Amino acid sequence: xxxxxxxxxxxxxxxxxxxxxxxxxxxxxxxxxxxxxxxxxxxxxxxxxxxxxxxxxxxxxxxxxxxxxxxxxxxxxxxxxxxxxxxxxxxxxxxxxxxxxxxxxxxxxxxxxxxxxxxxxxxxxxxxxxxxxxxxxxxxxxxxxxxxxxxxxxxxxxxxxxxxxxxxxxxxxxxxxxxxxxxxxxxxxxxxxxxxxxxxxxxxxxxxxxxxxxxxxxxxxxxxxxxxxxxxxxxxxxxxxxxxxxxxxxxxxxxxxxxxxxxxxxxxxxxxxxxxxxxxxxxxxxxxxxxxxxxxxxxxxxxxxxxxxxxxxxxxxxxxxxxxxxxxxxxxxxxxxxxxxxxxxxxxxxxxxxxxxxxxxxxxxxxxxxxxxxxxxxxxx
Length: 381
What we know:
By secondary structure, the protein is α+β, with helices and mostly antiparallel strands. It has two domains: 1-98, Phosphorylase Kinase, domain 1; 100-166 and 177-276 and 294-325, Transferase(Phosphotransferase), domain 1. It has helices spanning 54-72, 104-111, 116-135, 187-190, 197-213, 223-232, 245-251, 262-272, 306-328, 348-380, and strands at 10-11, 15-24, 27-34, 39-46, 82-88, 91-97, 101-103, 138-139, 148-151, 156-158, 165-166, 178-180, 302-304. Strand 9 (148-151) and strand 10 form a beta hairpin. Helix 3 (116-135) runs antiparallel to helix 5 and helix 7 (245-251) packs antiparallel against helix 8 (262-272). The relative contact order is 0.10.
């Protein structure tokens, strides 16, 4: 809408859209001017995609309003403040604090893997933001590098609560749709379970992994394949994480009960801020060129059918269990018994004794004959 007739686009009668500053699977972000208060703001135009049904659109729209209002209650320096929410052109719009910054994804794409101590500091900021959200009963559900803003001072801000959910809210019926970014969805979310605070901690671990390694922990090139890898596979080996490796491993535990708690993660991240940079990975022998890993792989919001996710995850786990049993079970085939030694007939062991017996017999006969002869002569003499 343009009440002034100048060709400028104004929404909600007060927000002048100046330029597009971001775009993702859940909408477009604009740099805007709040004409009523005379300040810069970021305005997000939330979209749900052409494959979302009218019923799903209505539920998601209502959920967006409710969750945006919940996010507006958050007051924390590491959380991008939500100022307003409204509906125009049949779509929800979110008005947020504008932070002059770069996304963590942009930093990794431009500079490659980041230093361990810098990633640890970013992790502490994000952990504080997630903790504040959880204390307000909000699960973000989409913690990922593209939703982390890093300002010029190196401070991190968590933004885009567009698919967040308030815990314990059962007033909205489920649409049967699971929304999330495959490479950053926790294993329990990937199998269709309800959002829980532990999900955000897993996603934070995956986000920090990407920042320090320069690639996501799980990337199979295709959304469903990546999601199944999250459920059944281990993260790709870490080569640059240094002091962060133990805490990232704990945060990425598949079992939520074995996952690092926020308190444990905080202690480990604080320690890693003082860590020296790890030695560079060993130089590998030249190999044919391979496609470089993409830091943004698996980072687009996708929608999945939870029943399909459960079926696929079950099959993946069964295959993994079968393979594990094959590798650990004792072999059922016994080694063939050693061949019995063959008796080899050796002629010399028969000939020699025979000759000896013949010689003894001759000697006995000769001796007997001599005795007879000598004895006869003695009698005749």
